[in-house]
Give the backbone structure.
Amino acid sequence: MPETKRFDLPSGASYVWHEDQPIGRGGFSVVYEGEAGDGTRVAVKVIRVVDDGTSNWYTNAKSFGREIDIARRLAKVEVGHLMPLLDNFMPNPQQIVLVMPRADFSLAARLRDAGPLSEIETRLLLLDLMAGVEELAQAFIAHRDIKPLNVLRWRDRWVLADFGISKGLNDSTGSHTWVGHGSQQYWAPELFDAEPASLQSDLYAAGCTALEALMGHSPFPLQGAAHAHRFEIPAIPILADAALDRALRMLLAKNPNGRPEDPRQVRQILSPPTAITDLQKSLQRIVSRSAARAQEAEVLARMSQQSEQNQENGLARWAAIWDDIVELAQHVVPDATAMVQPPNWFLNIGDARLSVSLTSPVKGVGDLIGEISVRHYDHQRVDLLIAGNLRCVVSGGSSSWELLTFSRNDMARGAPRLREPVNGAEGTGVPLSALEDLLLQVDSPKIGMHYPVVQVHRQNLTGEAIVAMFVAEVDALEA
Ligand SMILES: Nc1ncnc2c1ncn2[C@@H]1O[C@H](COP(=O)(O)OP(=O)(O)O)[C@@H](O)[C@H]1O
Ligand SMILES: [Mg+2]
């Protein structure tokens, strides 16, 4: 196979590209060094549309048709910050070729080779990105894949490239079919809730990209991206340029409505008169501090909203488990009595009482935690023990309850008791007041003074598991 390919178009244009000189590659394409007939240097993106058995090749082919379609739409607006398409053709049925001006390098390559950008360079990058997003907005297009690999240096500015998954903002179809494309490290929080991409999600990705350029690494992890984008404020370094700090915070607002409505707002903030005094810098700093506080308040509000929602779901799940418990008991002991006085649930059976208390933790050890206790009344004497604990964790929108019991590790034979016995009986649960700390210590894992070397046993919570625990404790007390 010759390493230099040539193609002559009916239009008279001709291109060569050098397959031994790839300058970049993506999932389905390789970009090569090439020249147009008049000797101009070009970049030639060769896209495979052949069924390679690994994915839906038909959809891929359609997507690159879309890339050409988007380029045609962009040709109708004034562009200065978007990589234009010079030509396109199919040299054979397995390939689509896109011809572009040859850019110098990508932002990703720049960061890899020469480290992070300075504040001044980042400000210029952000101005270019905003100009690019604005041009896209004028053509009613969402880019949907803004990231350092798709930002190219060309003619002394940064331009947006790779419209492979872009789409029209008014296109009715296709908004959800493309969820899953693009890199989650640059996904706006709402995209994780299957909201369609928008100008605001492009602005967010541009903010991530600029912050990455400034920090030298992505501000959001790939692992756990959904949680990080929704609830974590990236650590923006302390900047001398307060306007840049403010712009980044505006772009990275969790709520799309909190982001700028129009990229021009960001450009305004970033394009003040060149020489500003210290006094004027102080004014900017006041606003950037306000933006930082607004961002914190937004995250706290989102977290408490989320945890309220989680608690509601968790309580609904718990109510079903409680119904199972009561039904299981009353089926065979019809005079067993149940009482619900949130946050306490009681079941009286003979001389014994099962009670469950639930509370909402404050430290991120679950969304609801609880204590299962067993009381036994025997004439004047009451035995009480904490049989176990509960924890509800919501993930991916569904809540799951786990039953926790604790024991001292064998390694810690000489260690103090797990819990002082109550009226002679020692349970395998812990008081609610101590549960949060204990779980944090066990999960962290720094076991503190009060609970030296504790082991946690977890099982999926069912009504039957609680009843079994209750029966075992009462039998032991009566033995
Ligand atoms: N016009 C160009 N000039 C120079 N390099 C380019 C050009 N277009 C793309 N590249 C390089 O090729 C890489 C992949 O191109 P891209 O269009 O993003 O393909 P994909 O859709 O497969 O991600 C880019 O990250 C960049 O490094
Ligand atoms: Mg790309």
